[in-house]
Each structure stands twice: as structure tokens, then as C-alpha cells.
DNA sequence: CTTAATTAAATTGAATACAATTGAATTGTA
DNA sequence: TACAATTCAATTGTATTCAATTTAATTAAG
């Protein structure tokens, strides 16, 4: 296994990442069920808990998602009463998303989610940090 | 950034993996367009190029996908004339997938795909191997 | 042998992703 | 100022992905 430059599925670095990402996603499902969120809804809330009142575009830049994906997710969060969408009066192209009281309160319930997931992931801190570093190296390289 | 156990999107190891996987997937799109395959179709063909005449179940175990995902993918490959589906006579629950002549011939056209993608990924060999190792460490840990 | 349990594939329904397009608003420029 | 180019969100259409269920076949247990 000296390089990935072969048509063997086991040798495919990109496939390993893809499978890994999907398997981790499945770990979230039962944990996020408890707070009635999907993974995409959850990461959208993470952004909002960190920066309330943010444009859809800016959420998309952080999450690497476009409005085609985000618009329906934000609408679903709005339907749950967790966020509100407000078109900017300064620039009417922009829709800003803000947390409701319920949305803010959910943060408390969500605070144990990362720990629960990492328990199942089975990496020690050193490997976790290394994996994180390599993922962002790829992301930065692609973004250029 | 000493741990990932916080509700900050930038600190989320799992998010990094998820974003990384999706961004790499986008790199494949224009490259696989040239041989008229989607990513899911491509990894299915990778399995078949390595082991022709394989049950849907066994493809699924390799790709971490269930029949709900694989059945339509295999049918789309069949429609393109790349594979055939044959129900086993020994055990009629099983559907075996085999390559057609066209499916086998496509392998030659696909052989440069990995190299083209890795050029864009921007990792040297050492980092690539490390990322691969960590992904499979997670996958093995989840699979138990 | 007969029935219960298991297995494999397919189906259904919900939620993503993403490319491409649309429409409205804003910005840049001659 | 006019008008072309750009930007942002939404929409549309296609392809996944997965949980849950269904159907048919096989295996196991009594």
C-alpha cells in the first residue's frame, strides 16, 4: 500500500474519507434524535450558537454548503421554532438568520453531543488532532 | 484548540471530515464526467473491476452501503450497459453483479482518475498515508 | 417435518447535496 | 446617470444516503 494511485478500492484514500464521514454521521443520528435535530440542522445550529444573526451566504461559507442545501434546512429549523429568517433592510438580497429563545435554549441540551460522539469514534486525542489537521490541510488546499 | 469537545464548529473533528469528504467528492465530478460516471457509480465499478461476479450484499459490505443505495446505482450501471444483474440459482435471494465487455473496457479509461484527483487534493505521500490510516482506524473502531 | 427466525434485495419516504437556473437587488463602470 | 456585471437567495431537477418496511427464500429449532 505505498500509493493510492491504483484502481483498488482499498487503496483509495478518498473512499476512506468518504466512508469514514458517512459512518460517523450515523453515530450522530441516535444522539441528535434526542434533541430532535438532523446532522445538517445540528451543524447549522452550531454556527448560529457561535454567531447569531448571520447571513445565509456566510453560514454557507462556514459549512461549505450553498443556498440550495441551506435554504430548506433553515426553513425546517424555522418550522421547529428554533430560528427566524429576516430579509435585510439594508441589502434586500440578504436573508439573516437569528436564533429564537427556544433555539438559544437548545444549546444547553446540545452541549454533551460532541463528547458522546467522540466516545464512539475511538480515536485518542493525538490521533484526533492529527486527523483534524490533515482534513483542514486538504480543505485549505482545495479552497486555495 | 486542545480538544473537540466544544460546541464550536471550527473545533469539530467530525465536521472537518464531513466537509473534507464533500469537497473531495466535488473534485471527482468533472473528472468522472469524462467517463460518464457519478462518484457512487465509480466506486461500485472499482469493486467490480477488482472482483467480478459479486453479490449486492458483498459490494455493500465493501462500500459501507446497503441495498437501498446500491440497488438503484447498480440498475443505473445496468442501463448504461456496464453491468448485468443475475439472480443466483443456488440461492435465489442473492443477486450477483457481473461486468459486461463495455464495463470491463471502461477500466482502461478510468485508470488515470486517482492520479488526477490526488493532484488536486494537495497532500504529500506521508500525509496521505497518515490520513488513510486514521480513517481506517475510525472505520475499524466503529465496525467493532 | 413444520414453524420460527434469519437473510438478501427491493421498495418507500424523508433529508440531503449539488449543479444549473431564475429573479431581485446592488455594484461597477463608461 | 444608464446599463452591464455581480451577488444573494430561492427554485428545479438529479442523485444520493439511510431508516424502516416488505417480500421471497433459506436456515434453524423443536
Oligomeric state as shown: homodimer
The CATH architecture of the largest domain in chain A is Orthogonal Bundle
Largest beta sheet of chain A: what is the strand line-up? 1-3-2
Helix content of chain A: 55-70%
Characterize the biggest β-sheet of chain A.
3 strands, antiparallel
CATH superfamily of the largest domain in chain A: Winged helix-like DNA-binding domain superfamily/Winged helix DNA-binding domain
Secondary-structure content class of chain A: mainly alpha
- Cα shape of chain A: globular
Mean pLDDT of chain A: 93
Number of strands of chain A: 3
Give a description of the structure.
Chain A is 64% helix and 8% strand. With 144 residues, chain A is mostly helical. The first copy, chain A, folds into two domains: 24-110, Arc Repressor Mutant, subunit A (Orthogonal Bundle); 112-144, no CATH class. The mean pLDDT of chain A is 93. The first copy, chain A, binds a DNA duplex (30 and 30 nucleotides) through α1, α2 and α4.
Structural key phrases:
homodimer, 144 residues, mainly alpha, Arc Repressor Mutant, subunit A, 2 domains, 64% helix, DNA-binding
Outline of this structure?
Two copies of one chain form a homodimer. By secondary structure, chain A is mainly alpha-helical.
SSE map:
Two copies of one chain form a homodimer.
Chain A: H1 13-33, H2 39-50, E1 54-55, H3 56-63, H4 67-79, E2 83-87, E3 95-99, H5 101-110, H6 113-121, H7 125-143
Antiparallel strand pairs in A: 1-3, 2-3
Chain A binds a DNA duplex (30 and 30 nucleotides) through residues 22, 25-26, 29, 38-41, 55-57, 65-73, 76, 87, 91-95.
